[in-house]
Design goal:
Order of helices and strands: EEHEEHE
Distance between the termini: 24 Å
Structural class: alpha+beta
Helix content: 25-40%
Strand content: over 45%
Oligomer: single chain
Radius of gyration: 17 Å
Largest sheet: 3 strands, antiparallel
Shape: elongated
Number of helices: 2
């Protein structure tokens, strides 16, 4: 692997600092079945701690999917 130094920090390290793999676990239920809690797992890379990709996905979920989010867990 080739490293490029920018102000003493390698590009590889900059990616590790800013974009990290995330495991997102969403617990949700459908409005018709409130006693049945379901789980959705999603693995992605996102910019920490802003989480722009995750926020975009959750906004999409809120606007287009009937399921109600109960809990969100984000693990690095």
């Amino acid at each position: 692997m080739t490293y490029v130094f920018v102000y003493g920090i390698t590009i590889y390290n900059m990616l590790l600092i800013y974009k990290q793999p995330l495991h997102i676990r969403i617990y949700y239920y459908m409005p018709d079945y409130t006693s049945l809690l379901q789980e959705f797992n999603w693995v992605t890379e996102d910019v920490v701690p802003e989480y722009p990709r995750t926020k975009k996905f959750l906004t999409y979920w809120k606007n287009n999917i009937e399921a109600v989010i109960h809990t969100i867990e984000i693990n690095k």
